[in-house]
Amino acid sequence: MKLYASPFSSSFAVRLALAEAELPVDIVWVDLATKQTSDGSDLAVLNPKVLVPTLVLDDRAVLTEIGACLQYVGDQVPGRQLVPPPAAFERYRLQEWLSFLAGEIHKPLGLLLINAPSFDPDTADVPRRQAQRLLPPRLDHVARTLAPGGFLMGDYFTVADCYLFTTLIWARYVELDLAPWPVLGGYFDRVAARPAVAAAFAEERAARIAARKP
């Protein structure tokens, strides 16, 4: 498999799932500003949306969008419980979480991530205020769900946790104060300490540093 990715972007959630699944994958880095890839390939040919994550399977089939890629990865290693089995009710609960994270956490955080300088200085604070209004009740819901020491789906780590952890990295990057939700801080540290997550995080950080060098 190949994963077209950009450091700590949406593709990081899929990278974490692949690491937890211990599936072999080649990472092709994408400069999101120029759309140039580290191997010289044309991402637009594989994914007309020209976005990451773009997952190219061994049979050359292409998957895009976080939720689809995460569920595919989890299904490759059923014994690891990264996704519940097909037709199980918990499978729909997982899809519920993936949809919630995409629409209710990822989307408003995106407003903070793209805030200034891409916005007009006179209106740059508008999306920030909107995100800061929308996020607290949604983070309340996540925090209420997370039992101490647990994960989104209960006692076992799933691909939904890969997505939530990624969004919490973004929250820290934009300096969103998570102090009102101490359970989220404990959760972040717990997931960050997982060996597969820690290794992927270190590799992603190294790629980001390398990309910034002239």
Could you characterize what this model shows?
The chain has 214 residues and is an alpha+beta fold. It has two domains: 2-80 and 196-212, 3-Layer(aba) Sandwich (Glutaredoxin); 89-194, Glutathione S-transferase Yfyf (Class Pi), Chain A, domain 2. It is built from eight helices and four strands; from the N terminus they run βαβαββαααααα. It has a four-stranded mixed beta sheet with strand order 2-1-3-4, with helices on one face. Strand 3 (54-56) and strand 4 (62-64) form a beta hairpin. Helix 4 (89-113) packs antiparallel against helix 5. The radius of gyration is 17 Å and the shape is globular. The mean pLDDT is 92.
Q: Count up the helices.
A: 8
Rg of Cα set: 17 Å
The backbone outline, from C-alpha atoms, is globular
Strand content: 5-15%
Specify the structural class. Answer: alpha+beta
The total domain count is 2
CA-CA gap between termini: 30 Å
CATH topology of the largest domain: Glutathione S-transferase Yfyf (Class Pi), Chain A, domain 2
Largest sheet: 4 strands, mixed
Q: Stretches where pLDDT falls below 50 for ≥5 residues? A: none
Query: What's the number of extended β-strand segments?
Result: 4
Placed side by side, the strands forming the largest sheet appear as 2-1-3-4
What is the H/E string?
A: EHEHEEHHHHHH
Supply the CATH architecture of the largest domain.
Answer: Up-down Bundle
CATH class (first level) name of the largest domain: Mainly Alpha
**Fraction of helical residues:** 40-55%
